[in-house]
Q: What sequence folds into this?
């Protein structure tokens, strides 16, 4: 459903020609913070990876697999956030990309299945005060009945869209922008890496899928155009070309498919 006034959308306030939407965990950061919590202080990598595959193969919803993961993390919520701040690292080229985006009026919108307070704390630590210029939309955390959020076993994941199998259906936000009238609608980029990005994959003009990760396998299986990135230097170079009119989103997607078929996307191509 289209909106009558683009000014209702936060990222449209500066009338941008391009908007960059992005996943957070494992995309802006080198590690997925939720995987990190689950692997190190939850039930461990083996079961977590099993749940990822179950989700990728449509045997369980992302919402239910993610709740299963987060329920295994028992540490108080404030300790979890500090644990992440102490351990999660930023992609070394993201800050350069973000500085370019501010200069070129390319708003950055973070769409995450992680928890907003943790994401904002990490961005403030890793990017600095300018990080507040990024809109962040994610899930939440709340206290379990009869408990405090900051006690052992006291918190649980609260989904932005609990009725959706995605928990946070990223397509909802993307469609608000893609349904704008053609004369104001910006070109939309999206970057992601895994199962939390499946709801966003079809909703953007150019999808950046991280080399060697599950999102590439999904896109190849579902015939969704994408281009491959290894880090944010790849994304920055490609965005500079497109925003300067030296390349197109179609060119980038064609190269992504060719890289996949040639075995250069870090994922074994299907026959």
A:
């Amino acid at each position: 459903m289209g909106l009558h006034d683009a000014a209702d959308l936060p990222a449209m306030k500066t009338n941008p020609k391009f908007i960059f939407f992005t996943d957070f965990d494992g995309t802006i950061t080198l590690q997925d913070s939720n995987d990190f919590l689950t692997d190190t202080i939850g039930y461990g990598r083996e079961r977590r990876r099993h749940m990822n595959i179950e989700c990728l193969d449509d045997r369980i919803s992302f919402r239910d697999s993610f709740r299963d993961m987060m329920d295994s993390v028992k540490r108080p919520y404030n300790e979890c956030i500090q644990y992440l701040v102490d351990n999660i690292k930023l992609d070394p080229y993201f800050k350069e990309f973000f500085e370019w985006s501010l200069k070129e009026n390319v708003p950055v919108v973070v769409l995450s299945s992680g928890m907003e307070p943790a994401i904002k704390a990490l961005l403030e630590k890793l990017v600095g005060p300018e990080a507040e210029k990024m809109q962040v939309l994610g899930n939440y955390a709340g206290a379990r009945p009869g408990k405090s959020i900051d006690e052992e076993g006291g918190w649980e994941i609260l989904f932005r869209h609990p009725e959706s199998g995605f928990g946070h259906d990223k397509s909802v936000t993307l469609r608000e922008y893609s349904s704008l009238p053609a004369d104001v609608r910006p070109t939309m980029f999206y970057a992601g890496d895994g199962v939390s990005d499946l709801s966003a994959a079809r909703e953007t003009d150019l999808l950046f899928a991280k080399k060697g990760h599950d999102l590439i396998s999904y896109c190849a299986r579902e015939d969704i155009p994408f281009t491959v990135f290894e880090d944010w230097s790849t994304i920055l170079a490609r965005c500079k070309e497109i925003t300067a009119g030296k390349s197109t989103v179609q060119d980038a997607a064609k190269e992504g498919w060719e890289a996949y078929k040639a075995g250069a996307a870090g994922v074994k191509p299907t026959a």
Summary: The mean pLDDT is 93. The chain has one domain: 16-261. Residues 202 and 224 are 7 Å apart (CA to CA).
